[in-house]
From TrEMBL:
The keyword Chloroplast does not apply. GO terms for molecular function: 4 iron, 4 sulfur cluster binding; lipoate synthase activity. It comes from Balaenoptera physalus (Fin whale). This is Radical SAM core domain-containing protein. The lineage of its organism: Eukaryota, Metazoa, Chordata, Craniata, Vertebrata. Keywords: 4Fe-4S, Iron, Iron-sulfur, Metal-binding.
Length: 84
């Protein structure tokens, strides 16, 4: 799950932590996510995230940065993105 474990909403069906001002994002998250997935040897991944209403793009850039890192390490990997 991208963008940490703290969401800016508070949906009753979800167990993610909620905060109006969540902690700052890890600048290396996209790279580190791709590195871990490559080490695990996965050939299909689903990327999702918490909602981040505090970000102008809602976090879309995180998805856009992570996918190329994944493809760089494994060009044949299948990536499904499920942004909130």
């Amino acid at each position: 799950m991208l963008m940490g474990d703290t969401c800016t909403r508070g949906c009753r069906f979800c167990s993610a932590e909620t905060a109006r001002n969540p902690p700052p994002l890890d600048a290396n998250e996209s790279y580190n996510t791709a590195k871990a997935i490559a080490e695990w040897g996965l050939d299909y991944v689903v990327l999702t995230s918490v909602d981040r209403d505090d970000m102008p793009d809602g976090g879309a850039e995180r998805f856009a940065k992570t996918v190329p890192y994944l493809k760089e390490r494994n060009p044949k990997i299948l990536v499904e993105c499920l942004p909130p």
